[in-house]
Amino acid sequence: MGARAQYVVVENGTWQRYYSHWAASRVADDLLPGPAAATRCFRANREIDEWLDDVWCEGAALVDHDRRTLLWFASPDSWADHLAARAVLARTWPGWDVRFAHDGMGDLTQHLDLGRELTRAPGWFETFEAAGFAHAEYSEPHSVASLRLPDGSVRAWGSDWEPVEHLAGGLGLIGHLAASPATPVLTDMPYGGVHFDPGARTVSLWAVQTVAGIHDWPLPGWEGWALDFRGDDHTLQAGLLPADFPFPRPSLAAALRRLGNGLGTPPPDNGPLLARAAAAPGPEGTTPVVTPAALAPHEPADPTPAELAALRAAITALVAEAEESLP
Known about the structure:
By secondary structure, this protein is of the alpha/beta class. 28% of the residues lie in helices and 19% in strands. The chain has helices at 27-31, 35-43, 79-92, 105-111, 163-168, 172-178, 235-240, 252-261, 271-279, 305-324; strands at residues 5-11, 14-20, 46-48, 59-64, 69-74, 97-100, 143-148, 154-159, 192-197, 202-207, 226-229.
């Protein structure tokens, strides 16, 4: 099974859908060089007349030239990689409203005025009765769950669940949380977190991945509770965590360098040189021949040398800024 991706390009009042069987892990990379390069890349894929759903689609992007809006989602390798991609997109898509599609395909179809339920069957959000809590026994959990106790203090645990799975477990999870043993101190940032405040009847959630269904609040079992959805902003929960269980601070500069190191190098444009060679007179009685394999043309769907140069310059500037901000 491949990592399926779907792309939507909106221009001049019309939109088209495209599909790749393997490119979900490359969605952010293909967006980095900017709107023109991303549009060429997406249009080079197969055009389709159907929508993928949240199960089958592992990465997607909607490029709306009419409203200068970009919506996208993909699974990041790490928290820092997600933030690095967001920082670069803010530079290479100037004047655009660039948003991570936390509601997955629902955000894309909603943008097109098709509603959030187009790709979702009724009752698609599966709940379960919490019979325990999937706390993590290692220092790099998928998410962090925190709870304000009746005495006003806050406890936190590493969790093997995705952030939204804590909500699927319903209110019964809170009792299991309070009874859970301590988990190891974090050595890397999680992909998201959820904080429960029973006194205020509020749930706060953040994530650097999709949390499909988050706009359908209240989710089943949470009637009477308020949701404080923070997008990918972890700072509220960071301020609530106990002193002995802080979020780490991964290097944004290192993540930006990884992005830069992963950029492809465009093939040299040998056309003019070889054309001159073919036009030059050969020895008497001979005809100059150019082997087609010697040509390395630029693929139309790839970023141009100028686009790659601008992307590298943006990453270099962001690395310098990230290093200057270090304490």
